Amino acid sequence: MMDERALVSRTSMEVATALVTGAVGSAVVWAAVEHDIGWGDSGPASGYFPFRIGILIILASLVNLMVALRRRGADTSAFVTNVQMRSVLAFGLPILGFVILSVFLGLYVAAILYLVFVMVFQGGYRPLFAVGLAFAVAVAMRLIFPIWFKVPLLIGPLEALLGLY
């Protein structure tokens, strides 16, 4: 039987969200204060509207924080369970790996590795089929973006070695 315990409570996530949005509002206010936040001869100065928007974000975050803290004993629902988090990680970690590999190996090689991994280990496809389809996608990417649309994609050492740029 799968573990359905709450990994993160709804209240914890509401508090965290209120703190993050409050920090965003504070950053907006901080940046606006570096400019004039008043009203000049020709109208509002460059920091006028951002400053007020930042204050509104902070105030809304404080209200959300107070509501979350007031309900913390009454609301025991789960934001995410262990089973749900495993599903999110099964989707998200390969994508994170794809992004990291793209930086070091280039987009084509990373796409091939990502597709083969996901198709074989998550989709249950035969490895030979997965490799063939992954290479077909890489060839299609090469034709569509840099050749037809003239939009260069991130290349890595293998593509540079083969002269594919």
Annotation keywords:
mainly alpha, two-stranded antiparallel ribbon, two-stranded antiparallel sheet, 6 helices
How many strands, what sense, and barrel or not for the largest sheet?
2 strands, antiparallel
Indicate the proportion of strand residues: 5-15%
Mean pLDDT across all residues, rounded? Answer: 92
User: Could you spell the SSE succession in H and E letters?
Assistant: EHEEHEHHHH
Secondary-structure-derived class: mainly alpha
Number of strands: 4
Distance between the termini: 51 Å
Low-pLDDT parts are none
Rg for CA atoms: 24 Å
Shape descriptor: flat
Helical element count? 6
- Strands ordered across the widest β-sheet: 1-4
Tell me roughly what share of residues is in helical segments.
Answer: 55-70%
Walkthrough of the structure:
The mean pLDDT is 92. This protein starts with 5 loop residues before the first strand and ends with a helix. The strands form 2 sheets. It has a two-stranded antiparallel sheet with strand order 1-4. A two-stranded antiparallel sheet has the order 2-3. By secondary structure, it is mainly alpha-helical. Helix 1 packs antiparallel against helix 2 (48-70) and helix 4 packs antiparallel against helix 5 (127-148). The protein is flat and about 60 Å long. The chain is built from 6 helices and 4 strands, in the order E-H-E-E-H-E-H-H-H-H. Helix content is 70%, strand content 7%.
SSE blueprint:
Blueprint: E1 6-9, H1 10-33, E2 39-40, E3 43-44, H2 48-70, E4 78-81, H3 82-105, H4 107-122, H5 127-148, H6 157-162
Antiparallel strand pairs: 1-4, 2-3
Helix pairs in contact: 1-2, 3-4, 4-5
